[in-house]
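Chapter summary example.
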Amino acid sequence: MTKKTSLLLCLMVHLFAFGQKDSIYIKADLSARILRVKEKIVYQNTSQKYLSSIKLLNLVAAYQNRHTNLLRRKLEDRKTDLYYAKENELGKLLHLTINNNTITENLNEENLYIPLEKTLKTKEKTILNLEYSIKIPDAKFTGYGAGENEYLLKNFFLVPDSFDRNNETDKHFVDIEENYNTNTFYKIDFSSSSLLVTSNLPEVSPKIFSGIINNDVEINISTTPTYKLTTEIDGKKHIVDFGYSVSEEDQKNIEFYVPLQLKFLKDKIGFLPEKIFISNVKKKKNDFFGNDDIKFWKYKLQLFTDPEKIDMDYFSIISQELADQLFFSNKKENHWINNGLKTYWEIQYLEKFYKDYKLLGNLIDYKILGIKPLKYSFFSKLNLSERYGLAYQYIMAQNLDQNIDENLESLSNFNEIAISKFETGTLLNFISEKMGKDNFEDFVRDYIAKNDNKLINKEDFLNEMAMKSGYSSSFMETYIQRKMRVNFKIKSFDRIDDQLHIKLSKNITQNIPFKLKVEDSNGNEKTYWYDTNNKKGENTYIIPDNDVTKITVNSNYVFPESNFRDNYLYTKGLFSNTKKVKFKLFTDKPNPEYNEIFYAPKFNWNNYDKFLLGLKFHNKSIIESPFLYAITPYYSTGTQKFTGMTLVSYKIQPAESFFRSITLAYSAAFFHYDYDLTYKRFGASASMALNKNPRSQIARSIVLSYNHFDRELSEVMQQKNDYSKYNIWNIGFVYSENNVILEKYLFGNLQIMDDYQKLTAESFYRWEYAKDKKISFRFFGGLFLTNHTRNNTFNLGISKVSNYSFSYNLLAQSASTGILSQQFVLAEGGFKSLINGTVNQWIASSNVDAHVWKMFNVYADAGIYKNKTHDPKFIWDSGIKLKVIPDFLEIYFPLQSSLGFEPGFKNYSSRIRYTLNVNLNAVIGHFRRGWY
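The structure predicted for these 932 residues follows.
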């Protein structure tokens, strides 16, 4: 074959391969964070509409200021780097010329609409010649941009939208790995650069890259060499190009594990791409979730060895990259296909190479005082592969899970993992078990091969899987569109003529199959699969009775059910047809085979009971259940009497409703509130948490409560005709918005008692006005609608609260002198200075607190109040706050107030106030913000 013939043949192949695609030719250079580009776009109208303009994506505009969708999303994730970015760290399109016409308008828009000289009909092509320069943003915002010694470029070139999203209000989220311009032929020339250049495109000559990929183009430009692994799989060469440097020790582990991973994936998929590119962003985003070392102060606890972590991390990274490469899809809508298959392969990998590994890894063997405490927990018995079902259970139990088919940008960070990946992967694994793994993997291989370079349609994917599975997977079409809350329940069994007649119910109408497993006295197991009909309710399933001792439905979290506690039944012994009861020290992951009662020692202290030594019996665990109880008896060392408290609650959580949950609760308490004086409190409440967007920090709730109080009175109190028994009703509304820049809290409450009706309202705002500098504003108003009380017990507080409802955690409820009396609670008037008196008519106050330096804040309070038969009075104070542990332990030093210059008072030390707020739920809430 002559050279001319070869060239002609190559041209024909090129035209045939790319005739139906857009083609983009780029010659670029990068220096001093300015990207200069000459670009040619061959654009084909693939829509059914005639086009008078072409939309180009100008995604660098997402980095230009505080008014972009990217900034909003980053703040939702509680990341403020972009919000506080300096001008030189931002990115933007500096200038643009198209077909020799300079464009000056709308360069700050993420969608650029380029008018055409003539209308472009369906399947017609046009050519755009562009010249432009872009200021590259800092990489600290999304990982893409300018780093310390490198640039990672993605979504910075001006390109058409591959998915024909022509709505001017389209929102782009450049940090969620959404696809924008894919399945396009690219040729990118960085040959003029003096730096090292790598890409996810094939390198056809030094620093020149060309080809078609189903991901967006990534370019890594670096001053230091990156790592590249070349290996052979079944006699064919494959390259894994790492867009970052790798230590020698990690290289050894990668060279051992990655070829094994590629061989495993090739057997599952049928083939591998010649090149796999892993950027530093994808490495961090797609590594194995939950195998990190636990670091505490100077100590480090390893769940897994370094080689095992390398193996898990890179399998997770590479399998995700392959899933994204193999499917040409609108990931915004079809993310669950890519992510679900990635997780399915990961589950299979763990089953093969980590089958006997436990979820807690090596933590089980860590000793405390010579004892391995975790060895006795049920958590330590869970296999590593059960992590997928547990993550779904955790988020579902809080009713914060989302539909599998939810758009990618609407998923919370935790739901992107727990739902899009873990729940979907669990479902695919369940389907593969039902239809047979070989049949399922044949379907996946055939589907990928048949749809090579075709836009994936999720309905087509589900239909083909349903046909291949004998329609066992047909439930998926409905399942992905809503939160299903599926529950299979073993109700009972009967032994009839050497057979087991098992009564099992299903709570939904979808024809979802299930897995039934039985175990005999020798530990031998047998599995049965059943399809179900499109009716909910009870059915009987008959199997041989071969000395069966235990029956299990959907064991090992094989299907994402809403409740696994009713999936087990024993057939012999005392607990036949019921569950065994087990007492367990400390909270654990509940074992669904048992009715578990957790118990743990409890220690507390107040000035009257002194040390409280108790034992708490409860059923609250890591995975919440609707019904909760806690019974905590204490022995009071100060009074040598028994005290305690109890709480019972039930939570209603419909999958789809205008409210997230309704909680009905009953509580009782018995403690001392003064020396030798006890109080009893009996309460009932109902609270409704309204539905919320899992990505949002906004929460709203309505609370209704009733409490009966019975107090012992001293002789002096009896002489003053004080209240010994009283009933209080409350109805309130709470709005909170825990945004990272501006926190908001609004609360309104109506309190009713026989002798008064009181209306109170409070608002709180905390604004981070500069990096790590905050100022807070609180406003409070209280008004007695009627007030016929006999004393000041129920009055509104100025600088102290009465705590007649025993709702504040005070160390000394009745103390009037001493350090315990100096405890401060930010409630009602909220004054830090000890201003004597209470309010029996109305009060309005404001509290301001601002950061000054390191651990120091300044504060100021001002207000006006009125008592009966008195004129309104204005009061104020100011001082310095020392934040020992912010929001938990803080100390207030009064300076100037309406009382005078307080440091000059003889008893100044007794005027210093402090807060002590030991609230574990607040700590947990603080750390989970940004995830859901």
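To summarize the output: The chain has a mean pLDDT of 91.
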